[in-house]
Automatic annotation (TrEMBL):
PROSITE patterns: HDOD
Lineage: Bacteria, Pseudomonadati, Pseudomonadota, Gammaproteobacteria, Pseudomonadales
GO MF annotation, one: aminoacyl-tRNA deacylase activity
The protein, known as: Histidine kinase
Entry-linked Pfam families: HDOD (PF08668), tRNA_edit (PF04073)
Amino acid sequence: MSNPAASEQFGASLPDLIEKLLQQQGIAYQLRPASGGWPASQQIQASLLCDNVGTVLILIPKDHLLDLKTLGSLLGRELEPVRNRELQRILSKHQLNQLPGLPILFNSPCVCERSLLDQPELVLDSGLDGWSLVLNQADARTLMAKVSLAQFSVPLSSLEKSAVSAAQDDQDLSDAVQNFTALRMKQRLEETIEIPPLPETAQKVMKLRVNPDADVDDLADVVETDPSLAAQVVSWAASPYYAAPGKIRSVEDAIGRVLGFDLVINLAVGLALGKTFKLPNDAPDRATPYWEQAIYTAAVIEGLAKAMPRERRPEMGLNYLGGLLHNFGYLVLAYIFPPYFKLICRHIEANPHVQPHQIEQHLIGVTRDQIGSWLMRYWDMPDEVCTALRQQHNANYQGTDHIYPNLIYLSLALLSEQGIGSGPRLSIPDALLERLGLERESADKVVGKVLDARDALRSLVSKYQGTTRPE
């Protein structure tokens, strides 16, 4: 019941098991490249959930978010996503490399978002990387004949929220704290959530940053007052990533000969802040580890900035710091909302097609971007860093200091194409590249160089992880 000519045209065929099942049901289909550009409302996002009773296959449109709490209330079950290792075992048993949205493939109940069957065509993963099944409405209804239909997911359009002002971010965070913690509200938000002060070393380093007379000796003196930081700076300079000739013999040597004054100032701030919050024990399955993503992002940002026309380049050190700290709100999120952090992680796993900050907006009313930016302002960090964190997912931001968040966005988008990060791929608008004065080819070359240095970067990751340990 397939379209053989179409399949031959694209040089692909369905796994035998899936083709046999579709034929048995009399379901006609077309096999098309997954890059077909269909509306998200017609694309099926499949999730396999489980509890102690068994598994359930869930189907929703890709322009919706799966709400585990609503679904759990509907079914009277506490369902969580099947862990990746178990999912891969199930898929390999059927010789598949992705989860297809085919109820007939699983001996599990299936629940489908009702609006899907109103679409003229449905597009679902085929079980074959890079290929989709396209079904017309009649065949889709045949496929879903024994599926339970319900309304339990949330339109992503309802979660879109543009940044209004810093005061609005403060209010959103206050409301979230009041709604989701047992703390008594105090007059000042920072007292309520008991955020620690900016570390003393970071305070000293930031003073040097605004001192026009500060030199390498001044910075070395500050770094050396913190033995842990001094060791980190020296080992960083000695890492294969920088390939410095000769042995690094001192902090002064690391700063003056290898890393440079500006980089060490911002590296020291990043290391100091890294000690402030612990990595949470829980984390979304299949997400890139926190510091690995941070260092890859900073490295790509550094390369992109150097590839920009000289007159458009941002301040290099602050640019690098923005990359290191871009996801810092994730750590603070776990610190402020510990009972709800597990719920957030499970929703991220169940919604790989949705950006994590949108999931947070839905669940608690405030995002990691807002939280991270709020904390940077509370700590009196530079405005460029505050803006970078707040606007990092806004590809169209053209306001004050736009270069910093624009570069973070581009770095995240480029890395997402290589499977680094969490959430779906981010689009890269031509207008964004034009604003930065970059060609797509040169941006791709930057990412290629960073990934070529993957082993050396991992050594830097291990040094950072020594500053921030899981709880």
